[in-house]
Write a structure and sequence with these properties.
Helix content is about 30%, strand content about 40%. It is α+β, with helices and mostly antiparallel strands and about 120 residues long. It has one domain. It is built from 3 helices and 7 strands; from the N terminus they run H-E-E-E-E-E-E-E-H-H. The N terminus is likely disordered. The longest helix is centred in the N-terminal third of the chain and has 14 residues.
Length: about 120
């Protein structure tokens, strides 16, 4: 039941993400396009696109032992910024973070495009 609650909460979160710059909310994003499934850090993740057509959210897929956790690539004027949050297995989320942090700006833009198609 706990995992079901996490995924229900996550679905609501993915649909509405406050974008924060300099510690202050600047806008909000609707991130329900997709998902497509990808593997990061050796575990399964779901990638959702946002309505700005650039930002993406990567959340633990059902059965992923790194749950609950999400990453967010926020597109800003100086490129993409990676953020993550959750209380999943830190070893697994660190491995996923390492893979995601290695993505180039072009890779992230291509992933945002792939989610929309």
């Amino acid at each position: 039941m706990k995992k079901l609650t996490w995924f229900a909460s996550l679905a609501a979160f993915v649909a509405y993400i406050p974008v924060i710059a300099g510690g202050q909310p600047t806008s909000s994003l609707n991130c329900k396009v997709g998902p497509i499934e990808k593997i990061y850090g050796g575990t399964n993740w779901l990638v959702y696109g946002c309505d700005d057509r650039a930002s993406i959210v990567i959340v633990t897929a059902p059965g992923n032992p790194a749950a609950p956790f999400y990453f967010f690539f926020n597109r800003q004027s100086d490129g993409y910024h990676l953020h993550g949050e959750g209380s999943g297995d830190k070893r697994l989320t660190d491995l996923a973070y390492k893979d995601l942090a290695a993505l180039s700006q072009t890779d992230i833009a291509a992933l945002a495009s792939a989610v929309r198609h």
